[in-house]
């Protein structure tokens, strides 16, 4: 699980041009204005930091502690997420490459 997460983060960062330490971490806090600007799609939760940065907002990562599972088994694995995640990653990469960056400034006489 840890190895597959590290590999997935490395691939995600290489293809998206980001440097997010753990994009799969679900502990997230956002300002309402950030989320209001994100273009959501199925699977967008995997790329929220990247999508938020694309809208011009700043992303800050803070360390969180993880605890071992007390009972049960994880339902997440490489094979049940690989193809959908990779397809979504390519879509995000395409969106970043097509993004128009502009800045609006006041005209002065």
Tell me about this structure.
- By secondary structure, this protein is mainly α.
- The protein has one domain (2-98).
- The protein is built from 4 helices and no strands.
- The radius of gyration is 16 Å and the shape is elongated.
- The relative contact order is 0.17.
Uncertain runs are none
Mean pLDDT: 81
Q: Count every helix, treating DSSP H or I runs of 4 or more residues as helices.
A: 4
Helix content: 40-55%
Whole-number total of structural domains: 1
Biggest sheet features:
none
Rounded radius of gyration (Å): 16 Å
Shape: elongated
N- and C-termini, Cα separation:
61 Å
| Secondary-structure content class | mainly alpha
N to C succession of SSEs: HHHH
Number of strands: 0
**Which assembly state applies to the chains in this document?**
single chain
The share of residues in extended strands comes to under 5%
């Amino acid at each position: 699980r840890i190895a597959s997460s590290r590999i997935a983060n490395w691939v995600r960062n290489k293809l998206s041009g980001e440097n997010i330490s753990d994009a799969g971490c679900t502990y997230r806090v956002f300002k309402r204005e950030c989320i209001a600007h994100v273009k959501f799609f199925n699977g967008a939760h995997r790329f929220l930091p990247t999508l938020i940065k694309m809208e011009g907002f700043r992303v800050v990562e803070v360390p969180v502690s993880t605890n071992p599972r007390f009972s049960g088994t994880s339902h997440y694995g490489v094979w049940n997420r690989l193809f959908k995640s990779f397809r979504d990653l390519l879509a995000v990469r395409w969106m970043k490459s097509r993004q128009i960056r502009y800045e609006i400034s006041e005209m002065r006489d």
